[in-house]
Amino acid sequence: PLRTLLNSLLNFRSRSVITQLLILVVFQSLPDALVAQEWAKKMFATLEHDFGTVAKDSMQEFRFEFTNLYKEDLHISGVRASCGCTIPTAEQDIVKTFEKGTILATYNTKAFAGARGATVTVTFDKPYFAEVQLQVNGFIRTDLSFSPSSLGFGEFSLKDKPKLEFSVSHAGSSDWMITDVRSKHAYYEVAILERTQLPSQVGYTMSVQLKDNIPVGYLQDNLIIVTNDVTNQEIKLPITGKVSAPVTLSPASLLLGITSPETEINKRLILRADEPFTIESLTCDYPGVRFKLSDEAKKIHIVPVTFIAGLSPQKIQATITAKVNLNGELTLQCPLSATVE
Fold first, then answer.
1. Which of 176, 201, 240, 294 makes the best surface tag, with the fewest CB within 10 Å?
2. How many helices (H) and strands (E) does the chain have?
3. CATH of domain 144-244
């Protein structure tokens, strides 16, 4: 009996020690796991987006942008959402050093209504395993509708100043009114063309014209329709498009990759237009970049670029700025990136 008791005590102590060791290992590994996720999270410009109050059946999209800050390629093995109110898409599977990637979150306003939110999980399996959680929220109103569901201008030039018409319908109170239209940017000229009123419905026909101060590049914005409804005063209407410049610069970015100290790399920039133009200046905010310019006015300028790496290891992220003259001064920019090690 004494030997049995001693064996029982020893077995209990052994199990206790093993249990304690397992708990210790788990808790020690938790900080490592959290740190392991940080390398992926720090690549994202933002981890959350609020669509705000939107109309039923309206087109609502948001792109979570991230930049590969590392010398290894990134690979996204999957994306998923905790709720069907958000449909996530990885628009690039593989993202190379200093390149940008996007996770498209589409808010499902056709199948859902009311306050809806989701957690979008992005899974990376290269260069290491990590998961990043992105938060999406919004409120979908069933008493409002836009036609079309979003304002898509397509691709256009600055001189076009395109114009679109759209309608807003509200089912319910006949005293409902649009009191203002706002946006984050002063790119739009909005006008009310007509207001119709029925016993249980109010409708507006409106127009929006783009101004000539809109910047070159992709347009992703919202018109904010302000109403006299104190419970839900603002509704967002998405605007998309692409503003093409009279002068284009390619490549869109100079990705020089990994190089050694004091190494010289030669590239070229191509500036192109439908009419002859001159390059007034070409500069870079990193001092080790030189350009060979021509004073001649022509439709295509091929500019040699020389990059000289510094003495010390560093990550370089700089901007090349070109000022050209084509019936007035235009400014174009091109990001430059390199890793010296």
1. 294
2. 1, 23
3. 2.60.40.10
Rounded-to-integer distance, Cα 296 and Cα 279, Å: 8
- Spatial contact of 103 and 63, defined as CB atoms under 8 Å apart: yes
- pLDDT tens digits, one per residue of 161-186: 899 999 999 998 888 999 999 999 89
Query: Environment class of residue 329 by beta-carbon count within 10 Å: exposed (0-12), middle (13-18) or buried (19+)?
Result: exposed
Same fold? 48-141, 247-340? yes
The pair of three-digit structure tokens given for residue 85, joined into one six-digit string: 């109110």
Superfamily of domain 48-141: Immunoglobulins (2.60.40.10)
The model's pTM: 0.68
pLDDT tens sequence across 147-161: 999 999 999 887 788
Under the phi-then-psi rule, with left for phi > 0, alpha for psi from -120 to 50, and beta for the rest, what region is 22? alpha
Which class is 247-340 in CATH?
mainly beta
